[in-house]
Amino acid sequence: MSAEAREIGAVNTVTIDRDGRTKGHNTDRIGFRRAFEEEIGRGTVRGRTALLIGAGGAGRAVAFALFDLGVETLLVHDEDGDRAARLVAALVAAFGAGRCRLVPDAASGLAAASGLVNATPVGMLGIPGVPIAVGTIGSHHWVADVIYTPLETELIEAAGARGAMVMGGSGMCVHQAAETFRLFTGLAPDVDRMRRTFAAAASVRAGVAVEAG
């Protein structure tokens, strides 16, 4: 495994070299980090507290990406308390005691945070809803979602309506795909072209969904 994948404890990309040897990578970490830098900015999280909802594979990658971005303290909430505790333990081991802790519910965590990331499937097509009470989100918060189906989840729409800075999952999807392309080919990806291709495909998908509905 790559150093990042080993640290995260999750793999989403496997490369095979000329001798048939495999290596596991995690492109979600760099994908989220680059999207966040472009759409929200490091300054909104550097030296501050953030809330992560969801401690699965995507959540683990996002957690490490937030530390890459300079978060001071990360609060973690997951319906699976054991899974959340394992992630907190990994982050404390990597970044030190006091830098990460569990919170019993998302609302209390957001009250102490500058913003939140939804790394759960709640809000994905077929799994409606929001992972946190919308009324707890204020205009001073930023809100990010890793979901890109749909492009704007109910959470992102509601947070935007309340004046929060928002980021859907499309940027993370494009950037993790770009990193995967680089790993597979050894070539520098044309991220702008990939972004346009993604947008065109998403537009067609949305049109098909509307027609089907």
Sheet with the most strands? 6 strands, parallel
Q: Mind telling me the CATH superfamily name?
A: NAD(P)-binding Rossmann-like Domain
Order of helices and strands: HEEHEHEHEHEEHEHH
Q: Calculate the mean pLDDT score and round it.
A: 95
The fraction of residues assigned to DSSP E strands is 15-25%
What Rg is obtained from the alpha carbons, in whole angstroms? 17 Å
Tally of strands: 8
Span from first to last CA? 43 Å
Describe this structure in words.
The protein has helices spanning 3-8, 28-39, 57-68, 81-95, 106-111, 154-161, 170-185, 191-212, and strands at residues 13-16, 22-25, 49-53, 73-77, 100-102, 115-118, 142-145, 165-167. The chain has 213 residues and is α/β, with parallel strands linked by helices. It has a single domain, classed as NAD(P)-binding Rossmann-like Domain (Rossmann fold). The strands form two sheets. It has a six-stranded parallel beta sheet, with helices on both faces. Strands 1-2 form a two-stranded antiparallel sheet. Helix 2 (28-39) packs across helix 3 and helix 2 packs across helix 7. The radius of gyration is 17 Å and the shape is globular. The termini are far apart.
Summed up:
This protein is an alpha/beta fold. 46% of the residues lie in helices and 15% in strands. Helix 2 (28-39) crosses helix 3, helix 2 (28-39) packs across helix 7 (170-185) and helix 7 packs across helix 8 (191-212).
List the helices and strands and how they pair.
Blueprint: H1 3-8, E1 13-16, E2 22-25, H2 28-39, E3 49-53, H3 57-68, E4 73-77, H4 81-95, E5 100-102, H5 106-111, E6 115-118, E7 142-145, H6 154-161, E8 165-167, H7 170-185, H8 191-212
Parallel strand pairs: 3-4, 3-6, 4-5, 6-7, 7-8
Antiparallel strand pairs: 1-2
